[in-house]
Design brief:
single chain; alpha+beta; 3-stranded mixed sheet
């Protein structure tokens, strides 16, 4: 059975990433001009800070050198996190996006922008923001109803800590 280079790299590197307390989200090998670039995306429930990224990057680099998994040709290793507007594709992604605003492409057509309030095994409880002074409304979305979902960047939103300080 033939596997792709990305699949082989995932099998090699995922245990190492997991041992560092992170999840391996994505692996991609791209050609940039004459160079190859191995991009590794990691995350965790609490996020991945720069120290964690540096630690896992060193560990991955050592493993790749030890096994020669990338071959003899030169390559660059880039390790990072999914970014602010990450697509949500796994159950754990939705859990990590609780209290975030998300744009949903619905399987039956149409889109919905809503804040994730809770996640369970079957789907999500969301709050749809009110329009033109109307109150926000709650809604349940089952996972099969979601074709795509992507976190939205909010620049002016106050987090729970800010709201608690205002109320005190």
């Amino acid at each position: 059975m033939s596997t792709t280079q990305s699949e082989r790299l995932r099998e090699l590197l995922e245990p190492l990433v997991t041992s560092q307390g992170l999840d391996l989200e994505e692996i991609a090998v791209d050609s940039v001009g004459r160079k190859r670039v191995l991009r590794v995306v990691v995350d965790s429930d609490t996020g991945a800070d720069l120290d964690a990224i540096a630690d896992v990057s060193r560990a991955l680099s050592a493993k790749l050198d030890e096994t020669n998994a990338m071959g003899e040709d030169a390559y660059d290793l880039e390790v990072g996190t999914p970014g602010a507007e990450r697509p949500l594709t796994e159950h754990r992604h939705f859990v990590r996006a609780v209290d975030r605003l998300v744009k949903f492409q619905l399987a039956e057509g149409g889109e919905l922008v809503a804040r994730i309030l809770a996640v369970d095994d079957e789907g999500l409880d969301v709050e749809v923001p009110g329009v033109k002074g109307r109150k926000a409304t709650g809604r349940r979305i089952a996972f099969p109803e979601i074709a795509k979902a992507r976190v939205q960047v909010e620049f002016n939103r106050k987090d729970k800590k800010d709201k608690e300080e205002e109320e005190a």
